[in-house]
Amino acid sequence: MFHLPFPARDSNLSTGNKNLGNLPEWDLSDLYQSPDSKAIKNDLSWLEVECTEFATHYEGKLGSLTSDEMVACVERNEKISNIAGRIMSFAGLRYYQLTTDGERTKFLSDCQEKVTNYTSPLVFFSLELNRLEDDHIEGLMAENVALARYRRVFERMRAMKPHQLSDELEKFLHDMGAVGDAWEKLFDETIAGLAFEVDGKTLNIEGTLDFLMDHDRSKREAAAKELAKVFHGNIKVFARAHNTLAKEKEIVDRWRKMPSAQAGRHLSNDVEADVVEALRNAVVEAYPKLSHRYYELKRKWLGLDKLQVWDRNAPLPMESDRLIDWAEAQSTVLEAYGGFDPRMAELAEPFFNRGWIDAAVRPGKAPGAFAHPTVTTVHPYVMLNYLGKPRDVMTLAHELGHGVHQVLAADQGEMLSSTPLTLAETASVFGEMLTFQKMLESVKDKNERKVMLAGKVEDMINTVIRQIAFYDFECKLHDARCQGELTPDDINAIWMSVQGESLGPAFEFMKGYETFWAYIPHFVHSPFYVYAYAFGDGLVNALYAVYQDNPEGFQEKYFTMLKAGGSMHHKDLLTPFGLDASDPKFWDKGLSMIASLIDELEAMEE
Predict the structure, then answer these.
(1) Is the dihedral of CA 16, 22, 24, 29 positive or negative?
(2) What is the rounded CA–CA span in Å between residue 288 and residue 293?
(3) What gap in Å lies between CA 154 and CA 324, rounded to an integer?
(4) 231 vs 149: CA distance, rounded Å
(5) What is the DSSP string of 494-559?
(6) Crossing angle of helices 531-549/584-604, nearest 10°?
(7) Are 284 and 291 in contact (CB under 8 A)?
(8) Residue 233, class by beta-carbon neighbours within 10 Å (0-12 exposed, 13-18 middle, 19+ buried)?
(9) Which of 256, 260, 550, 570 is deepest in the core (most CB within 10 A)?
């Protein structure tokens, strides 16, 4: 659930904040005032007692509960999830702010161990519920509307029924989760502790990756080679983490009789394997007309015989290096949201003025960006590493979309608010699209329009093409791990097998690029998570086309979809828009939007 913070770095480390204005920092007091507050001690004590009492009261008795008693049981379970989630959100977010701080790391680990131990008696709940006959559960829901609203919870839970182990083994796996968490922490702390020397500065990974978007090609090259050098120096640690976690997953999947390494992710995403396969195949088939075609254009714009990896996200020659300060980024996104519907801007506004965003790049802060929903009785928090680039504005729009979605879904409660990953990207990518279209409308200059269109195409390629290539990498890696231990060279070879295919013939690959799998956190924290990005992008492109063709009443249907959270299947959520993700042609609609932007770019060259 959480990525971990890093130890304090030397004060000469570059922060990258470059006169961007007053960048906000989290105020976590809405969760708890401090790690030693009385409230958090009380909640931990309550959790320990309540989990034991819950098990005493209900274990072995679910089959005899009346519908009213079952509602009370589910609501008690939700309250436990709320308190446990509140504790872990506070501990995890503090850690992300400064992953290198020993006290924060210890506090997170201690909380994780306590919550795992305290909630261990609850493992019986889903196991016992899954042993009940379908007719029995249907009967209870038929006579109690309050219970019937949890239908999707029961359906998703019972989808795991064929893969359920004995109660004793399930409790063992629950407790063993702390071991996998330790490997994830090792990965996070290793990444956070890496130091890179570029352009006379000592940088963390975020600052170094930022150099890959510098106008100066020599700096981009230096950054890419420094990344390769440092990754190579730590490659054994990264390979060990991947080997261990992939083997752990293979063991659990084998015991659960999962048909594939990806199957568990599909179940948790509430999406059918053939839908994901249709998405994957549509994207791979589109590589030549999307990424290959675009990068050939970019090669010409940059005046190169071949693109190197440090040119992939390079700015175009005519692109301004103007930085966008925080105030402008805020107004840009809020205006785009408000232009779609004033309610969107109203929902987003508190993130900026109540300490719900942590934006600055700081030594020891976790890299990347995310929106964490915390619990439904508090509010989400957004983390950024804002460097003032146009892409950072899009990242703000993206993560704020998640935040708005999470706020709207909160009324569903803990068990129904959480959206499967495939739909979790809907509001975020839609927020990006609104912001892009708003910015594009104001552009009059041809070169500036070209830069904006190219930037959007690159974002879409990164979201769709690159993530499906990541997905193929994971599929190959987990398949190979089933045959035995993988050396760093083995993993490097798997990585390179998907890179050329997805990026196309415009590229050459420098020596050292084969290690760039090492820093991708999703492979470690959330195996097979990555296809959700492509799913979300394709879905939103199709949704946005519906909005453009028939805007009348779209906003109400859109808000209804976001408010549903995880209470509905993707098929039911998309039906009001006339869309169906199980139709293979559905994905072609989304991909054709990317192709149309490349068409416009090509036309501008004539």
Answers:
(1) positive
(2) 6
(3) 47
(4) 49
(5) HHHHHHHHHH-TTB---TTGGGGGGG-HHHHHSTTTTHHHHHHHHHHHHHHHHHHH--TTHHHHHH
(6) 80
(7) no
(8) exposed
(9) 570
What DSSP character marks residue 386? Answer: -
Distances (CA, A) of 265 to 180, 197, 262, 268: 17, 38, 5, 5
Question: Helix (H, G, I), strand (E, B), or coil: what is residue 7?
Answer: strand
Global pTM value:
0.81
Contact assessment for residue 304 and residue 297, using Cβ atoms and an 8 Å cutoff? no
Burial of 142 (0-12, 13-18, 19+ CB in 10 A): exposed
Confidence (pLDDT) at 13? 31
- In the block, which residue shows the tokens 């803990």? 414
Q: At what angle do helices 102-119 and 67-97 cross, to 10 degrees?
A: 170
Q: Which DSSP category does 568 fall into? A: S
The dihedral formed by the CA atoms of 204, 210, 212 and 215, expressed in degrees to the nearest 10: -130
Q: Do 348 and 382 meet the contact criterion of CB atoms below 8 Å apart?
A: no
Helix (H) or strand (E) holding 6: strand 6-7
Q: What is the pLDDT of residue 448?
A: 87
Token digits of residue 512? 């050292």
The amino acid at residue 321 is D
State the 10-residue block means of pLDDT for the chain, 606 residues long. Answer: 29 51 96 97 98 96 97 96 97 94 95 94 91 94 96 90 87 80 88 92 89 92 97 96 94 94 91 93 96 96 96 89 92 97 97 97 89 96 93 93 96 91 86 92 86 92 95 97 96 96 96 96 92 90 89 94 92 92 85 94 87
Q: Which among 228, 183, 224, 208 has a CA at the least distance from the CA of 527?
A: 183
Distance CA 81, CA 75 (A): 10
42-64 per-residue burial string, b: 16 or more CB within 10 A, e: under 16: ebbeebbebbeebbeebbeebee
Which contacts of 148-153 are long-range, i.e. CB under 8 A and separated by 24 or more positions? 149/416, 149/567, 150/74, 150/415, 150/416, 152/416, 152/566, 152/567, 152/568, 152/569, 153/74, 153/415, 153/416
Q: How many CA atoms lie within 13 A of 82 on its CB side?
A: 19
Provide the pLDDT for residue 7.
26
How far, in Å, CA of 559 to CA of 490, rounded?
A: 47
Give the separation between CA 219 and CA 234, rounded to whole angstroms: 23
pLDDT of residue 264: 93
Predicted local confidence at residue 556, as pLDDT: 96
